[in-house]
Design brief:
The chain has two domains: 85 residues, no CATH class; 117 residues, no CATH class. Helix 5 crosses helix 8 and helix 7 crosses helix 8. By secondary structure, it is an all-alpha fold. The radius of gyration is 23 Å and the shape is elongated. The longest helix has 36 residues. The chain is 70% helix and 0% strand.
């Protein structure tokens, strides 16, 4: 059951990432102005703008540029940053590592917690405790992640308790685990977002299986 859940989530996440990339790429095409002119400045000559467009591949059709970028992802080529002139992979490397740390912490907490709550609800189906857990899970599942994150920051980092940092304290390029306190609120946000999904899956699987009876 757990393996099926992971595979289903991975496939769903892949489709979401593809859809987001298409939306972002399409949105950039609708932006006013010329990217090459914005990089070179308003005083750039048409020859320099044309040369930069060719260098960046901006003179190609939009569909070809997207497919080339998408194909580069499978070989580790994320393109070149127009801001720094260096590979995008060098900019993403430390940030991806920090993201994996957050994902691992959230998974370690949310997976057993969600499955445990699902089993608990299945064993107490129809009771007030089950209804309360279901209501809380539905509310958390329906709320956007940023709303939960802002609420946790407001409660624990700004106006109420002020016991946790609201922003990253580690210097740029440093691992986030050097200051454990800054991991608490992001991890808690992910746990609150993911746990209702695992609880729903576990409780839903119980509906399709013989009812467990405790004597």
């Amino acid at each position: 059951m757990f393996a099926k859940v992971i595979i289903r989530r991975l496939i769903f996440s892949a489709f979401i990432l593809l859809a987001v990339s298409l939306i972002v790429f399409g949105a950039t095409l609708l932006l006013p102005g010329d990217a090459a002119r914005a990089i070179l400045g308003q005083q750039a000559t048409p020859e320099r703008i044309a040369a930069l467009n060719e260098q960046l591949g901006l003179n190609l059709p939009a569909w070809q540029r997207y497919l080339e970028w998408l194909g580069g992802l499978f070989v580790g080529d994320f393109g070149t940053s127009t801001a720094t002139g260096g590979p995008v992979s060098e900019l993403l490397g430390p940030r991806i590592g920090n993201s994996f740390v957050l994902m691992a912490l959230a998974a370690i907490i949310s997976v057993p917690l969600g499955i445990g709550l699902g089993v608990y609800s299945a064993l107490h189906r129809g009771t007030r405790r089950d209804q309360a857990l279901t209501g809380i899970s539905l509310v958390l599942a329906a709320m956007p992640e940023f709303v939960i994150g802002i609420a946790l920051i407001a409660i624990f980092a700004t106006s109420v308790f002020q016991i946790l940092p609201a922003v990253t304290l580690a210097p740029p390029g440093q691992p986030v685990w050097l200051i454990p306190a800054q991991l608490v609120l992001p991890t808690a946000t992910l746990v609150l977002v993911v746990t209702p999904l695992y609880r729903a899956d576990d409780a839903g699987d119980d509906d399709r299986s013989p009812r467990l009876r405790i004597r």
